[in-house]
Each structure stands twice: as structure tokens, then as C-alpha cells.
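lol so apparently i was supposed to do this last week
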Amino acid sequence: MDAVWMLPLLLVLPLLLWTSSTFVFYFKKCFYVAYMMLLAIIAIPICILKSGGRDIENMRVIRFLVSHVKYFLGLRYQVSGWEHLQTDRPYVIISNHQSSLDVLGMMEILPDRCTMIAKKELIWAGTVGMICWLGGIVFINRQKTSDAKNVMSDAAKTMLADKIRLWVFPEGTRNQNGGLLPFKKGAFHLAIQAQVPIIPIVFSSYSNFYLRKEKEFKSGTITLKILPKIETKGLTADDVTPLSEQSFSVMRSAFMEISSQTSQSNGPSTH
Ligand SMILES: CCCCCC/C=C\CCCCCCCCCC(=O)SCCNC(=O)CCNC(=O)[C@H](O)C(C)(C)COP(=O)(O)OP(=O)(O)OC[C@H]1O[C@@H](n2cnc3c(N)ncnc32)[C@H](O)[C@@H]1OP(=O)(O)O
Ligand SMILES: CCCCCCCC/C=C\CCCCCCCC(=O)OC[C@@H](O)COP(=O)(O)O
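anyway here it is w/ LIUXJHKN bound
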């Protein structure tokens, strides 16, 4: 008798859970972390067999394996400004940083021989940490500024010789409060020390599909705008502040422009 009553409940419960936006939020987040960990397990032996260890060429394997994850999460990317990446030279990419989901957008447009600057804690993120190390990610200790500066100066010295491009988040941390946090200086010292251009890239706001506080994670389209390069040839350490201000200003305008467009094309946000 009891079992008969349980049957409709068992059928309705998954439906209720599926329609609950909080459930979808946690489900998608857990899926994302677990699936990236799994992809990393697949990527680790491929990278070791192909390159024998830590090598920036491993980023091709990572980019390929990550490129379909967006479909599972209902995310799409609209990219403009591809032409600004079409150069053989090394450069420093700077972009805004809203969430760990940024990795999906990065892998959508990642140029060849491009790796990232990341906080050193990431190396302890299980198989994901291991794949970051294999992909040549440069780890910095944000608590020890002098160490971080030394690591970035070393990177500036090898960028040209090894034809390496570096992706830096100049805000220095994740930020989802609308707009951009004030920029840290490391990315600009790096570009000036290496005498390579800066290419700013802006991700539109995630606030119309991903809200951490409200526990919402809907489908959405993200606009990625690749901006024209900013040259640093002939600049010195004295030019870091104006260079950082110029970059901040072009990125903030682009962020405002594409974030309002994206939220319009996705329909009115509920928040
Ligand atoms: C296949 C399956 C795969 C599965 C999953 C894996 C998928 C993909 C793998 C890839 C994933 C990678 C994702 C990577 C994302 C990681 C994101 C992050 O970790 S963001 C956080 C770390 N990044 C940063 O912090 C970078 C930005 N920060 C800086 O650049 C900072 O400036 C600093 C950390 C270097 C220093 O910090 P701080 O002291 O707080 O900052 P400032 O005020 O900017 O600097 C103090 C003074 O020092 C001067 N300065 C700074 N840098 C330099 C330098 N290089 N050389 C000389 N001087 C420097 C600066 O000018 C300041 O002095 P002042 O007199 O005030 O001007
Ligand atoms: C056994 C260890 C378990 C660890 C679990 C964590 C694993 C994460 C797994 C999958 C997510 C894939 C994306 C990984 C890249 C995330 C990079 C990132 O966004 O780091 C945050 C950092 O930029 C800023 O951090 P703070 O906001 O300053 O703090």
C-alpha cells in the first residue's frame, strides 16, 4: 500500500527539483567542478605523453578538451575583434574576472602559446591544479608582493625568447559587483619590462544569467570583446600608472557597452 503512494512522489520529486532554480544552480556548479576535474584526469596523461611534462603547448590539449563544456551549462559566446589577436608577436592579455566560469571564455579564444598568471593556491586544486602546472601557468603568491614581482619579472625576461603570451587578470581577484575593480600594477610592469603590447579583452556581465547570492544559474550568452592592442614600446616604469589608467578606461567603457547590449538581447533580467 505504502509503495503505491510512493510512486507518484518519486515521479514528481525530480520534476520539482529540476524546476527549482536553486537546485539548478547547485547542480550546474557541482557538475562544472566535477566535470573539469574529470577532463583534467583525461588531459594529464595526454599532456605528459605529448610534451613530457610542463609545456605551454599543453594549452592546446586543454583548450580542445574544455571547448564543449559550455553546451552542458547552456552558455554561448559572441566574440568580436578576432583580428586584434592575429599577430605573431607575444603580448600580454588583460581581462576582467567575474568567476571561475571565465575559464570557458578563455578557452573559446585562447591564442596559441598563451598561458596565464594565477594565484599559487590553484596548484592544490586536485587534478585541475596539476593540469594548470602542466599548461605552464605562472603561479604567484599574492601575500608576498616581492615574490610575485620577481616571478613576473622573470616571466617578462623569457616571454620574447620563448614566444610566450600571458593572460593576466589585473583586478587581482574575482569580482561580480558590476564594473571593474581598480587595477593592480603587475600586468603593466610585465608588458613594459618585456616591451610587448597589451591586448585588453572584456567579458560582458554575467549578472543576467549567473547570480551567486540569489543562487541562480540560467542559460545565457556572453559577449567577448577583444580590443585593439596598446603599444608599450619605449615606455618605462614611470609610464605604468598612465598605461594602467588608459587600459582601465577603455575596458570599463567596453564593459558597460557590451553588458547593456547582452542583457537586452537575452531579454529583461529578473534582477
Ligand atoms: C582539460 C581539463 C582542464 C580542466 C580545468 C582547467 C582549465 C583550464 C586551466 C586554466 C585555468 C587558469 C585560470 C587562471 C585563472 C587564475 C586567476 C587568478 O588567480 S587571479 C589572481 C592572481 N592574479 C593576479 O593577482 C594578477 C594581478 N596582480 C598583480 O599584478 C599585482 O600587481 C601583484 C600580485 C604583482 C602585486 O600585488 P599588490 O602588491 O597587491 O599590487 P600593486 O599595488 O599592484 O603593487 C604594489 C607595488 O609594486 C609595484 N609592482 C607591481 N608589480 C611589479 C613588477 N612586476 N615589477 C615592479 N614593480 C611592480 C607596483 O607598481 C606598486 O608600486 P607603486 O609604487 O604603488 O606603483
Ligand atoms: C581536491 C581539491 C578540490 C579543489 C576543488 C577546486 C577545483 C576547481 C575545479 C574546477 C573549476 C575549473 C576552473 C579552474 C580555474 C579557476 C580559476 C579561478 O577562477 O580562480 C579564482 C581566482 O582567480 C581568484 O580567486 P579569489 O576570488 O581572489 O579567491
